Amino acid sequence: MPLEIAIAGGGVGGMAAAIALQNQGHNVTIFEQARAFGRIGADVNLTPNAVHALDGLGIGDRLRATAARPEFRISRTWDSGEETSRLPMSAAAEVKYGAPQLTIHRADLLAALESALLPDTLHFGARVAGVSQTEDGVTLTFADGSTGDYDLVIGADGIHSAIRHALYGADDPQFTGLVSYRGVFVRGEAPDLPNLDSFTKWWGPTSDLQIVTFPLNRGEEVFVFATTGQKDWTEEGWTLSGDIDELRDIYKDFHPEARALLDACTEVTRSALHVRAPMPRWSEGRVVLLGDAAHPMVPFMAQGACMASEDAVVLGCALEGVEAEGLPAALERFAESRIPRTTRVQEGSLANDWLKKGGNADWVYGYDAWGALKYEVV
Question: pTM surpassing 0.90?
Answer without folding.
Answer: yes
